[in-house]
Amino acid sequence: MNNQDELQIAGYYDSLSAVSRFIRMYHGQTLLGSGTCFFVMSQDGPVLVTNRHNFTGRDNFTGEVLHRQGGIPDHAVVTMHGPGEVHYHIDLTDHTNPEAPAWTEHPTLEVRADIVALPVKEMTNIVGEMNSVSLKGDWHRWDIGSELHVIGYPYGQIGGPFPIWSKGFIASEPDVDISGLPVFLIDCRSRPGQSGSPVFAHFRAGAVVEHEGQSWQAKRPINYFVGVYSGRLRADSDLGLVWKRSCVEELVNHAVAHGTQHRMELRRHQFSAAFYRKLNLDRYVRKDFDEAEWA
């Protein structure tokens, strides 16, 4: 390996930056949009989780096609970072039953839930406890105004191999469901490409956290998975939806018990994006962003 092939990162990075994954949706060779996904570590191996609208190409509430030319995804590509970019192809069409989704939907909410799962046990050697979400332990009490981070890929890979952290605050009572759905509102300056991002509470050493009704001072940084971000209520609003951790847990458990193991085919070159060292901020520093990406 020469110096050009080595990962050019100097210094410390947060472990959560290795959890979020860049995902792109295609119809044939046409790029329709990009978003974020992540893996949950289950008792039966990794499970990929993202927003349902990323895979359907339609607004999950209205059914409206998101791409301006009407394209619907037939496959997706997940980028895994290491010394270079490695791309995994996901076939979104069940060729034996074209009417059935290739992914697993929530067991009771079904299409109403804007989160889906794909069990990918074959990724066990690539995805582990350090670069996935854990659903073990539900120990913190949340209050309105609590600080959270949406960790994903606004406008694609603008941050190089790592996602961007967007800070936000719980904007609705977290114990109250919105419109009968297990979601709460977050006040966050999010942007297109962050759909499917994991949402975390990130406590630094010295922060006060609650556990079993008592307050404790964290001796080290602590991360707590809260849910999945699925976009803003309106394009002109900073209010966004977060599907609650409990809903994600129900989905993952259902996918492990009843979902079909999915195959993620390694494709190193065919769907390669610009390598992160070649990205140029000039394309982002402008008033309008006209490339094919949905929120």
Strand order of the largest sheet: 6-7-3-2-1-4-5-16
* CATH topological fold name: Thrombin, subunit H
Whole-number total of structural domains: 1
Tell me the CATH architecture.
Answer: Beta Barrel
Residue-averaged pLDDT: 83
CA-based gyration radius: 18 Å
Structural write-up:
The chain is mainly β. The protein has one domain (14-283): Trypsin-like serine proteases (Thrombin, subunit H, Beta Barrel), CATH 2.40.10.10. It is 6% helix and 33% strand. The protein has two helices and 16 strands. It has helices at residues 52-56, 245-258, and strands at 21-27, 30-42, 45-50, 75-81, 85-91, 104-105, 116-119, 147-152, 164-170, 183-188, 198-203, 208-211, 214-217, 222-232, 239-244, 265-266. Strands 6-7-3-2-1-4-5-16 form an eight-stranded antiparallel sheet. A six-stranded antiparallel beta barrel has the order 8-9-10-15-14-11. A hairpin with a 2-residue loop joins strand 12 and strand 13 (214-217). The longest helix is centred in the C-terminal third of the chain and has 14 residues, at 245-258. It is globular and about 55 Å long. Residues 1-5, 271-279 and 284-295 have low confidence and may be disordered.
